[in-house]
């Protein structure tokens, strides 16, 4: 479809003695400017240097205004920035490729006051970037004003104005400080949680279902401990480590993250078996087989990624291309590995676990009305159990998919804080849920399951 495409074709003589001035608008399209500018249209200033360098007597100047939302074009893979008014501007003069201009082409993008937390950046479309092309700022300078932004570029191609999230150096340092403090807190509560689970499993007599649940929780919290430890090592050693050591550290960080995701998925599978397949399922050496999956499957993924050389130094840059931080992680050349093994893998786990969470919540609420869980009828306790399940199934990691656009800095803070508190939430949840109390059935989940089995059988 060519909807949203507006083109102006001019025949300009080679002997032109003045610059060419053209206006453009996303709604009205381009037009030749003979007098003063009217309205809020943008401007294109073509220097006469362009025409003097051409050999033909007359050349065709083609200005194209594209609405990329309607056309579905010029979309970069994993693009975090917004295109101003969804408008891309294409400029060609003659049939030659024009670059290296001494007097740059000036494009004025008019706009109102920009939202807080974004930085405008003049870019052009580079077909050679990545696999499908992408935006690049080389050769373009950005000058921001109150009513518009002027882009000065030394070549002709397709241009636009990107609104990038303004993650500056101070924000990045604050996020790293919050994440570092949160990792220490999470590691401390991970140790408390593991010690608590081992204590009550050895001190009190639980049925086999509850013992398996406790074993699952210990492994999940252990993977969280490993992930926080890997991040602390990464942030502390990545700036001064050997390239080979950085590759090992990047693989360790990736492995611990995949372990955390895998054990989250196994928690969801266990809840599904307990609350949906309620008529008794026995699997020989069940917990040992879960450990083989939870700790072994990420080894295969990291091994394949390591063979193709995915790990190394990864630099985090701001909008001025200044390096904010170094990490040992998946390199920029192998970001597809990150999208598949991290984003795609967790996306599938998140969808499954949220479906399980909905089933468990619905069944627990229905049993509340039957009097099956009399000791746990208090609203605050029901809410706490629901919040604990929510964290246990990895819902806080879903905020990582929202860290784009104008509000990315705020979402990054929220994501960092909530994931730091995940270990605390799980610890409190386990204490409230599993610690035996007099005249109450130990392990409310186990009691609900037994009651539900009886109801289903009858």
Automatic annotation (TrEMBL):
InterPro entries: GAIN_B, GAIN_dom_sf, GPCR_2-like_7TM, GPCR_2_secretin-like, GPR1/GPR3/GPR5, GPS. One of its GO terms (molecular function) is G protein-coupled receptor activity. Pfam families: 7tm_2 (PF00002), GPS (PF01825). The chain crosses the membrane at residues 174-200, 212-233, 253-275, 287-311, 339-361, 382-404, 410-435. GO terms for cellular component: plasma membrane. It is found in: Cell membrane. GO terms for biological process: adenylate cyclase-activating G protein-coupled receptor signaling pathway; cell surface receptor signaling pathway. Residues 22-169 form the GAIN-B domain. Residues 179-434 form the G-protein coupled receptors family 2 profile domain. Keywords: Cell membrane, Disulfide bond, G-protein coupled receptor, Glycoprotein, Membrane, Receptor, Signal, Transducer, Transmembrane, Transmembrane helix. It is a multi-pass membrane protein. It comes from the Eukaryota. This is AGRG3 protein.
């Amino acid at each position: 479809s060519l909807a949203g495409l507006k083109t102006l074709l001019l025949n300009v003589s080679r002997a032109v003695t003045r610059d060419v001035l053209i206006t453009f608008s996303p709604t009205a399209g381009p037009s030749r400017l003979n007098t003063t500018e009217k309205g809020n249209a943008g401007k294109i200033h073509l220097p006469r240097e362009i025409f003097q360098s051409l050999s033909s007597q007359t050349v065709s100047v083609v200005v194209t205004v594209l609405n990329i939302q309607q056309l579905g074009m010029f979309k970069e893979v994993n693009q975090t920035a917004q295109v101003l008014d969804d408008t891309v501007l294409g400029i060609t003069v003659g049939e030659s490729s024009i670059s290296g201009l001494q007097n740059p082409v000036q494009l004025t993008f008019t706009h109102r006051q920009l939202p807080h937390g974004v930085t405008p950046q003049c870019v052009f479309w580079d077909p050679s970037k990545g696999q499908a092309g992408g935006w690049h700022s080389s050769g373009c300078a950005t000058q921001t004003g109150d009513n518009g932004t002027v882009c000065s570029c030394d070549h002709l191609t397709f241009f636009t104005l990107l609104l990038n999230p303004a993650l500056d150096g101070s924000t990045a340092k604050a996020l790293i400080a919050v994440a570092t403090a949160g990792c220490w807190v999470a590691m401390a509560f991970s140790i408390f949680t593991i010690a608590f689970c081992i204590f009550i499993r050895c001190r009190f007599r639980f049925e086999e279902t509850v013992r398996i649940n406790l074993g699952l929780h210990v492994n999940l919290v252990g993977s969280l401990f490993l992930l926080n430890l890997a991040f602390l090592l990464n942030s502390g050693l990545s700036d001064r480590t050997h390239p080979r050591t950085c590759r090992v550290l990047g693989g360790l960080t990736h492995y611990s993250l995949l372990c955390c995701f895998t054990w989250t998925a196994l928690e969801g599978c266990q809840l599904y078996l307990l609350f949906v397949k309620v008529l008794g399922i026995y699997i020989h050496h069940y917990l040992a087989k879960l450990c083989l999956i939870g700790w072994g499957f990420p080894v295969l993924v990291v091994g394949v990624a390591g063979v193709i050389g995915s790990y190394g130094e990864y630099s985090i840059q701001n909008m001025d291309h200044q390096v904010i931080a170094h990490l040992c992680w998946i390199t920029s050349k192998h970001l597809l590995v990150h999208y598949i093994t991290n984003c795609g893998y967790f996306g599938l786990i998140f969808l499954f676990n949220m479906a399980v969470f909905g089933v468990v919540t619905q069944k627990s609420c229905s049993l509340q009305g039957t009097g099956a869980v009399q000791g746990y009828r208090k609203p605050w306790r029901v809410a706490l159990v629901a919040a604990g399940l929510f964290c246990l199934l990895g819902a806080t990691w879903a905020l990582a998919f929202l860290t784009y656009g104008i509000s990315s800095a705020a979402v990054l803070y929220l994501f960092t804080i909530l994931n730091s508190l995940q270990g605390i939430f799980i610890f409190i949840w386990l204490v409230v849920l599993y610690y035996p109390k007099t005249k109450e059935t130990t392990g409310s989940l186990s009691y609900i399951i037994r009651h539900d089995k009886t109801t289903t059988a009858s």
